[in-house]
Amino acid sequence: MCSYRRRLLVVPALLCALVGLVARPAGAAGDGKGTPGHNGTDSSLSARVVKLYEEAARATERYEAGRKQAETRRAKALRIEALLERERREIGVLREDLGRIARAQYRNGGGMPLTAQIILATSPDQLMRGQHVFSQANLAVANSIEKNRRAEVRLAGDEAKAAAAWQVLEKRNAELADLKQGVEDKLEEARWELQGKADASVAAGSCPGAVRLDQKETDGTSAWVTPVAKYELSAAFGSGGERWAKRHTGQDFAVPIGTPVRAVGDGRVVKVACAGAFGMEVVVRHADGYYTQYAHLASVAVDQDERVDTGQWIGQSGTTGNSTGPHLHFEVRITPELGSGVDPVPWLSARGAPLG
Fold first, then answer.
1. For residue 155, which of 144, 163, 166 has the smallest C-alpha distance?
2. CA atoms of 68 and 54, how far apart (whole Å)
3. What's the first-to-final CA gap in the chain, in angstroms?
4. Which of 167, 207, 237, 327 has its CA 20 to 30 A from that of 231?
5. C-alpha dihedral over 304, 276, 254, 45, to 10 degrees?
C-alpha cells in the first residue's frame, strides 16, 4: 500500500491500490495472513465512534481554553485580595494613630473646655500656647478621621469588587465542571462503543477493515517514537504472573480505550489479526529487520502490506483478547512470530525514544 506521507498523490495511490489487489493473498483475517474483511455495518459504526471521539477531543480543547481563562480570573481575584489585605493594614495603622492622639490630648488637657483653660492658665502666653496645642491636636484628629473614613470607603468598594470577581470565578468553575463531565461522558461512550465493536470482530475472528483516523501529518523530526504519546508503564518484559503461561513477552502501556497507537518507526505492516490471545493486533516490519507488535487494540487504522511512517496512527488501544483491562501490549521481535521477543525498553532507548 501507499506511504502515509504520499497519500495525497492520487495517481501513485491508485497504482499502489491496483498492485495491492493483485498481490494480496486471499484468506481469513483472523489468522493475520489474509485480507481484512469489510462489513458495511461495522464501517458505519466505526465512523460514528471516530466522530464521537473527535467531538470529545474538541470538547477537551474547549475545556482547556476555559480552564486557562479561569486561571486568569483567579489571578485577578488574588491580586484584589492582596490589595484588600494591604488596605486593612493601613486602616489598622490609622486607628492606632487616632488612639495615640486621643491619649495625648487626655494627658495634656486638650480635652478641657475653654472656660476651664482660662481659669487655670497662669498667664496669657500659657493660655495661647494651650489654645495652639488644642487647635493642632483637633486638626490632627480631624485629618486622621477623614483619612480613616476614605480608607474604609475604598475598602468597602474593593471588597465588593473582590466578591464579584470570586462569584464570576465560581460560576466559570461550575461551567467548566459541567463541560468536563460532558467530555468524560462522550469519551466513555466513544471508548466503549469502540470496544464493543472490537469484541464482536474478535469473536467472529475477522477484522472489519482499516478505520482511518484523522491525524495531522507527522513532523518527521524523529526516526523513532514511543508507541503511545502519554502513558503509564505497567507489566514489564520478562515479568511473571498467573496471566501468562511463562513470562511476559512485551511491555504494557496503561492507557484508556481509544488512545491512538502509533508506529514506533518507518516500516511495513506484515500482519493484521483479530483473533487469539492478543485480540486485535498489528505487526510492523522495520528496515533494520526487527518487528514490532501492537496488541489488544480496539480498532485498526492500517491494512496489511501498507507502508507506515514514524508516528503514524495505526490503531486505537483497547482490551481485546486475553486482557484484564485497557492497555497496549507492545513487543519487539526478531521474527514476526511470538517467542522471539527482546526487551522493548532498552531497544527503544537505544533508538532515541526512551520510556518515561
1. 163
2. 21
3. 33
4. 207
5. 60
> How does DSSP classify residue 205?
T
Which residues is 273 bridged to in the sheet? 281
Q: What is the pLDDT along the chain (356 residues), one digit of tens a residue?
A: 444 444 433 334 333 333 343 333 333 344 444 344 444 445 555 556 666 666 766 777 777 777 777 777 677 767 776 777 776 777 777 667 667 766 666 665 555 555 555 555 566 665 566 555 556 656 666 776 777 677 777 777 777 877 787 787 778 777 877 877 887 787 787 788 889 989 988 999 888 778 887 777 777 788 999 999 999 999 999 887 555 456 889 999 999 998 889 999 999 999 999 988 999 999 999 999 999 999 999 999 999 999 999 999 999 999 999 998 999 999 999 999 998 999 999 999 999 999 98
CB 270 within 8 A of CB 284: yes
Interatomic CA distance for residues 318 and 198, integer angstroms = 8
Q: How far is CA 1 from CA 4, 166, 282, 283, in A?
A: 9, 58, 15, 15
Tell me phi and psi for residue 248, to 5 degrees: -65, 130
Cα 262 to Cα 64, 72, 83, distances in angstroms: 24, 35, 51
Element (H, E) at 297: strand 291-300
All 3 cell numbers of residue 339? 517467542
Report how far residue 11's alpha carbon sits from residue 25's, in angstroms, rounded to the nearest whole number. Answer: 24
Q: Reduced to 3 states, what is the DSSP secondary structure of residue 281?
A: strand
**Cell 485498526 belongs to which residue?**
300
Q: Helical H runs in the chain?
A: 10-23, 40-108, 114-120, 124-204, 344-350
Residue type, 173: N
